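Dear colleague,

Thank you for sharing your sequence with our group. We've completed the structure prediction you requested, and as agreed, I am returning the results in plain text so they can be pasted directly into your records. Please verify that the sequence below matches your submission; if there's any discrepancy, let me know and we will rerun it promptly.
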Amino acid sequence: MAKKKFYAVAAGMKPGIYTSWPEAEAQVKGFAGARYKGFGSRTEAEAWMKDPQWAQKKPSGPRPKRPECPVGVPTASIEIYTDGGAINNPGPGGYGVVLLANGTTRELSGGYDHTTNNRMELMACIKGIEALPSREQSVALFSDSKYVVNGISKGWARGWRRRGWKKSDGTPAMNADLWERLLDLTENLDISFHWVKGHAGHPLNERCDQLAVQSARGEELQPDTGYAA
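Please find the predicted structure tokens below.
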């Protein structure tokens, strides 16, 4: 009779101890920075979960290539990939960010109890820029929201602010609080915004979507105080 195996997942979709590899694999597959290890007893697995230090094996094959920027995008020192959304829009929402800077990768995410898709797309950009290790380097930000990309690249948001957060037809511009934060953050920053097609297979856009969905479905959701339903 085969000895029962226990798989401890310290960092994954849902951390915990699993008694079968398929269950554990579902938590770590595609999860950047996943931490997991197999043990012969639950006691060993539980002890490791309290202090999940482990020596990572060096890859035996060629190192995976970093995803290339979309064609036509100028090279930048730092890349920020973002995504955001809300379940049922409006509803519980979340944002996801992957920040590539100076040879390192950092992920950011957060969830709100009641918000909208557009607010989470904006929040993802805000959080990504706030996390920049330096404002002296060039930045390329990638979003699958045309609302965000056009709002910055085509100057719409600056125009709304000049008119007291009104559109050219006099109607109120939505999400003024977040647009204000984003405009302030991009002031005097060498940054360009680029649209990427969502759910089209780009690994970093897909990862941001995954982070955003996980956050929206989380248990510790904070209030989006700037959203008026």
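Summary note from our side: DSSP finds seven helices and eight strands in the chain.

Kind regards,
the structure core
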